[in-house]
Amino acid sequence: MKINIQEMVKKNIRELKAYKPEEILCPIRMEANENPFTINSSLKERVLESISRISLNRYPDSLATDLRKQISAKSGIKPESIIVGNGSDELIQMLITAFCENEDKVLFPVPTFSMFGIIAKSFGVNTIEIPLDSEWDIDLAEIKKSYEKNLPKIIFLSTPNNPTGNCFSENKILDIIEKTYSLVVVDEAYADFCGKTFIDQLKHSKNLIILKTLSKVGMAGLRVGYLIASKEIINILHKIRLPYNSNSLSQGAAKVILTNNEIVESQVQQIIKGREFLLEELKKLKDKEGITPFHSNANFILFKTEKDADAIHRKLTEEGVLIRNLNSDGPLKNCLRVTVGRPEENDAFIKALKKVAQ
Amino acid sequence: MKINIQEMVKKNIRELKAYKPEEILCPIRMEANENPFTINSSLKERVLESISRISLNRYPDSLATDLRKQISAKSGIKPESIIVGNGSDELIQMLITAFCENEDKVLFPVPTFSMFGIIAKSFGVNTIEIPLDSEWDIDLAEIKKSYEKNLPKIIFLSTPNNPTGNCFSENKILDIIEKTYSLVVVDEAYADFCGKTFIDQLKHSKNLIILKTLSKVGMAGLRVGYLIASKEIINILHKIRLPYNSNSLSQGAAKVILTNNEIVESQVQQIIKGREFLLEELKKLKDKEGITPFHSNANFILFKTEKDADAIHRKLTEEGVLIRNLNSDGPLKNCLRVTVGRPEENDAFIKALKKVAQ
Asked: How far is B171 from chain A (nearest CA, A)?
């Protein structure tokens, strides 16, 4: 008998592939839905000053107390209703770990944020994918039908939705929250770019959970996500949270940046302006270049190409502009996603796209 | 029908309690097995300089390429045999996620590092706990008997073992690695304080996995652990690793500190000296104070008290010295654990212990 490692792996893991972020080196990076602006030198100074006072040899504050207080001061949510994760990814993992047995199901519309499905599958939890309608909105009738049949433990709704960019209808989301007994996770990763939030609904709906992240507003490198829910749900998640899941440096840096929130807010406004600029410019590329952009409430725009999207994507990288290639069979056929860049990056992208899509 | 959140929680999670690090405020903290020394101002300067060049708005390097290269340069292990985690805790979680179905079992001697059991239980995996022998060494006969009966998927061995402080017999560990078909995880979190490692055994044993951490040698705040194993095992773990599990700041800071490894090494030597000092001093407290220290190869010392350990622990905190109270029914009855401190902290601890244990 010899050791066969592959046979020891859990069955549902064997067929998974490792998630690999795009690694093409391009001077202009508009592929990862990051904030394209860095922080100014005065804020950077304050971040470094704060970091210099952290004792690296000591474990972090397990409860991220100061950071949660700062989030609370900014949002009005009580600190005890907030739990911090090593990115939203870890919070999704915690939710599935706490609530889903093997036979349980999670439901989400597709296309959407890929980690809902990837994480569920890595835990052997069944995923139910309900296609969005032709407007990229939730297909409420289909979700309800599937809910009755499958009774999913968790329903994930990302609004604005990635990669489509639109907000789902508020009424449909409320209907799902109020008329199901699932945990409804509203992922508001991109909500800063449209100003809509379901936080007010938390006091009415104990099955509602809201996910937030600092990754889209300028702090992707820190890996700080947070989850807002009833104290009851928060306390359950603390049971399975790794004691030191959030490191000292990220807690410290995030706290300082959030204290100077007007800088983040002004960058968000610039990104919204950039999005509207890109939308207008992309609309002009219909006739000659065959480009059709979709409406966006986020910091990125999804667009369809008449010509082969793979070729356009490849040629754009040759022009030094990296965007996200989502081309695959199904609703995203010939679809590409561009993250809003700095003004000069937006110009360069439009110029390059005109050149390669003609 | 009303929503009952508690009924939605996985059964195995319901009975768990959240892990709460000790939160007593004391000027002298010798409870968490941290390195008591901070880095000097010149190294801190270099860390801050490196951090100042990181774009916080961009996602981290998913593969922690530079950090793994630096670990490789220091250890001689190939970068592709290393995977970085958000602390060892996350790596333990990844191992259980990848390899353990619900009915699977993991085995470890007790007392040992509590997270092996806590994480396994949070995933509903069965734990088999085999008591250490009277010398705190592995009970090889009992482990083998249990192995035959239970065929555990993973065996966790922490050496030097926390909280007992001793290294397990090398021959017994080798016997377990070579004569079982389990994955054998040797947790070398404290190995820097004794110089022993099983890295050389990796080329002979494809079921061997080694865990390392930077938490005990001065970087607990960063949350950087790493796992060394065959490329086959590493590739399996990448399938379920969250894409950005290690943040940019911690990767950057750890890389700089490891580049200046002579500082870490000199601190390790000072800690070993401090441990030997504490051991000698504790041995002197047998007759009058009723203290019996156990031999240690780590950066902490376990000791037994004749009087009530809870009272001694409480009185020590009143004296401003926080150590770890492990007093519980079973082999750790009246046991306390003290982490080696700076020389003046070691003196203060001994002085306080003499006072409160008399």
From this structure: 21
A272: closest CA of chain B, how far (Å) = 17
Same domain, B250 and B276: no
Chain B, nearest residue to A216 by Cα = B57
How far does A10 lie from chain B, in Å, by closest CA? 5
Tell whether B11 and B95 lie within a shared domain: no
Residues in chain B closer than 8 A to A101 (CB atoms):
10-11, 124
Partner-chain contact A220 B56, CB within 8 Å: yes
B207 and B288 within one domain: no
User: Closest to B98 (Cβ–Cβ): which among A9, A223, A257?
Assistant: A9
Total of domains in chain A: 2
| Inter-chain residue contact A48 with B44, CB threshold 8 Å | no
Residue B209 exposure: Cα atoms within 13 Å on the Cβ side = 29
In 10 A of CB B175, how many CB atoms?
Answer: 15
Per-residue pLDDT of chain A (358 residues; tens, 9 = 90+): 578 999 999 988 988 898 887 778 899 999 999 999 999 999 999 999 999 999 999 999 999 999 999 999 989 999 999 999 999 999 999 999 999 988 899 999 999 999 999 999 999 999 999 999 999 999 999 999 999 999 999 999 999 999 999 999 999 999 999 999 999 999 999 999 999 999 999 999 999 999 999 999 999 999 999 999 999 999 999 999 999 999 999 999 999 999 999 999 999 999 999 999 999 999 999 999 999 999 999 999 999 999 999 999 999 999 999 999 999 999 999 999 999 999 999 999 999 999 999 8
- Closest CA in chain B for residue A18: B239
Give the closest residue to B188 by CA, choosing from B165, B161, B153.
B161
Q: What is the ipTM of this complex?
A: 0.96
Nearest to A248 among B6, B221, B244 (CB): B221
Phi/psi region, residue A302 (left: phi>0; alpha: psi -120 to 50; beta: rest), is beta
Residue B305 lies in a domain: yes
Residue type for B156, please?
F
Whether this model's pTM surpasses 0.95:
yes
Question: How near does any CA of chain A get to the CA of B153, in Å?
Answer: 8
Cβ distance of B10 and A98 shorter than 8 Å: yes
Report yes or no: A186 and A212 within 8 Å, Cβ to Cβ.
Answer: no
Phi, then psi, of A330 in degrees rounded to 5: 110, -155
Long-range contacts of A196-200 (CB under 8 A, 24+ apart): A196/A159, A196/A167, A196/A170, A196/A297, A198/A173, A199/A75, A199/A77, A199/A228
Question: Is residue A242 domain-shared with residue A188, that is, in the same domain?
Answer: yes
Q: Nearest Cα to B251, choosing from B17, B53, B11, B109? A: B53
